[in-house]
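Forwarding the complex inputs:
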Amino acid sequence: MHEFQAWLWSTLGSIHIVRPFMTSVWGWPICESLHFVGLSMLIGCVGMFDLRLLGMAKRVPFAAMHRLIPWGISGYIINVITGSMFLITTPDQYIYNPSFHLKILFMLIAGINVGVFYLSAFANVKQLGSGAQAPFFARVIGGASLFLWMGVIVFGRMLTFYRPNPCNGEPEGFLSICLK
Amino acid sequence: MVAMGPFFVWLETTALSVWVREATVVYAFPGILSLHTIGMGFVAGMSAAINLRILGVASFVPLMELRRFFPVLWAGFWLNAASGVVLLIGYPTKALTNPMFYLKLVFIGLALVCLKAIRKSVFSDEDLDFTPVPRRGRFWAGASLACWTGAIFAGRLLAYTYSKLTTI
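Prediction (whole assembly, two chains):
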């Protein structure tokens, strides 16, 4: 694992294309702002579909509601791009950050959850019209989706506090670990 | 601003303010910030989804049924009003001496004006379930999207634009 982390660090650290922008005065703050806009689009559009799966707004047919999903995916893409820019600029702050590990884990499980939905329940769910209730399995997937994306938000927000630091003297924060 | 000094000192020495800044527990400052971000996702995100529908996206969604999501939107709003006040009690100087904070409040205020206008001009008309929303309603939906985007940018930039962290 340590070897993989060291390899990842040196590989990502050798990508210099975004560094001048990200280390400029407005580069990082603008990407952070876009990251939060993308987060809202994802939670708004995908979350609304999840809530429909859970039984809210039953008069909306699933196929109609599903037209919002591409907008949620747009938010996700914005976040993958801006997130990668953070990662490439300061790889050590993420690779050795326990909160980042959990964020990636939750994203992976959320991704599997999406895959399971489209491979299993979706064919049935998209036929369900106005007033229909989603089958139990699909409701579980919808609930899991909401829970997992909220977890991704929490661990994303916690990144700052778990940032490893050089610890030349005192550790910077009560949660951060020393980077040796 | 000079007159605010004693007020900041008083607020920053209250037990709650000290706890928000200094408690070494994950559910203090980091936890409150996380709640503030989840609330943002729901209030700005649900608004965005409703606004997109008003603007013509997913036009087979019966528009009036989206009223069911307003309580979710308001839950996000009140979660953030509450967590925002706690964060403000923790760092009053940091926020209140930063013009960006007032810009954020203006954007949120305008977003609420848009929401009220949307309820009045769009959601009062049951005939708009499937027919395209008139220009007036679409204007407010576009304005709402712009205001929430502005509020998110201003809020995020707070971390980079403050000039003074605390007075004490």
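Chain A touches chain B through 39 residues (CB under 8 Å).
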